[in-house]
């Protein structure tokens, strides 16, 4: 069994749980590899109708593990491969045939917020707090959010959220139309599960076609956006000043 990501299937629902609670499920190479394997398994399994995404412990995902940042920038080719693995998660969540329900609680930061934006439905706990720290660190966003977030909350708010890295609450998400529903913390998993079950019992063909239809118009631009994000993120990762900013943030 993978340790950084848990995977289970029940009643047509594949539950994928980020499982580095001691680091608030922060992203590292092992988590990316395990997450992609879980997504590949869910997307290939004909018995899976819906994917439910959540995080173990006190948070959904605190973004990139800054304690491992120095290891991510030792070799430009490895850095590019690491960023591409992040983008592959978005492909597995967005460019598939199965609806994804996010059960989001605690912190959803950076890559964790990007994966939240990649979900088809977001059930968000009252405790949720989210922001993009990338620009302030001299790096860049990934996950196709330069395209998806504009569609979800509008150009002006997307620009503000990504550029300034301000912190938002669950009530802000509701006002922005970023979440499907805001619930009490103890209800986030049951309500997300109930929603996933509602989707899982629907006829498979129309659900698949709906996801494809809703993605048809932005798919090409999503790939283009992620290509631009990858290049910008690579430059940011390899900028020596970014490493200095990360060290300052950790101190």
3D structure, described in words:
The protein is an alpha/beta fold and 251 residues long. The chain is 54% helix and 16% strand. It has helices at 29-44, 69-72, 76-94, 111-118, 134-137, 145-153, 155-164, 170-176, 188-200, 204-238, 240-250; strands at 5-10, 13-18, 50-55, 99-104, 107-109, 121-125, 129-131, 168-169, 181-183. Strand 1 and strand 2 (13-18) form a beta hairpin. Helix 6 (145-153) packs across helix 7 (155-164).
**Total domains:** 1
The helix-strand sequence is EEHEHHEEHEEHHHEHEHHH
CATH superfamily membership = 2-enoyl-CoA Hydratase, Chain A, domain 1
CATH topology: 2-enoyl-CoA Hydratase, Chain A, domain 1
Keywords: Lyase
EC number: 4.2.1.17
Family: Belongs to the enoyl-CoA hydratase/isomerase family.
Pfam family, one: ECH_1
Keywords:
251 residues, alpha/beta, three-stranded mixed β-sheet
Brief write-up:
With 251 residues, this protein is α/β, with parallel strands linked by helices.
In terms of topology, how is this protein built?
Elements: E1 5-10, E2 13-18, H1 29-44, E3 50-55, H2 69-72, H3 76-94, E4 99-104, E5 107-109, H4 111-118, E6 121-125, E7 129-131, H5 134-137, H6 145-153, H7 155-164, E8 168-169, H8 170-176, E9 181-183, H9 188-200, H10 204-238, H11 240-250
Parallel strand pairs: 2-3, 3-4, 4-6, 5-7, 6-9
Antiparallel strand pairs: 1-2, 7-8
Helix pairs in contact: 1-3, 3-4, 3-10, 6-7, 6-10
């Amino acid at each position: 069994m993978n340790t950084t990501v848990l995977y289970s299937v029940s009643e047509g629902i594949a539950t994928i749980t980020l499982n580095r609670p001691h680091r608030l499920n922060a992203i590292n190479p092992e988590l990316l590899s395990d997450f992609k394997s879980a997504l590949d398994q869910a997307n290939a399994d004909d018995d899976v109708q819906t994917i439910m995404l959540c995080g173990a412990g006190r948070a959904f995902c605190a973004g990139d593990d800054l304690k491992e940042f120095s290891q991510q920038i030792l070799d430009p080719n490895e850095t590019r491969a690491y960023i591409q693995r992040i983008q592959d998660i978005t492909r597995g969540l967005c460019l598939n045939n199965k609806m994804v329900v996010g059960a989001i609680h605690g912190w959803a930061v950076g890559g964790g917020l990007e994966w939240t934006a990649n979900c088809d439905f977001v059930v968000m706990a009252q405790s949720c707090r989210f922001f993009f720290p990338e620009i302030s660190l001299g790096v860049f966003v990934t996950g196709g959010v330069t395209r998806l977030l504009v569609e979800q909350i509008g150009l002006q708010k997307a620009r503000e959220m990504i550029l300034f890295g301000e912190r938002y609450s669950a009530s802000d998400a509701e006002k922005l139309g970023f979440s499907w529903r805001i619930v009490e913390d103890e209800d986030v998993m049951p309500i997300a599960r109930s929603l996933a079950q509602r989707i899982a019992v629907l006829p498979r063909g129309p659900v698949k076609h709906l996801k494809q239809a809703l993605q048809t118009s932005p798919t090409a631009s999503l790939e283009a956006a992620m290509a631009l994000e990858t290049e910008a993120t690579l430059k940011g990762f390899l900028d020596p000043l970014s490493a200095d900013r990360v060290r300052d943030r950790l101190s």
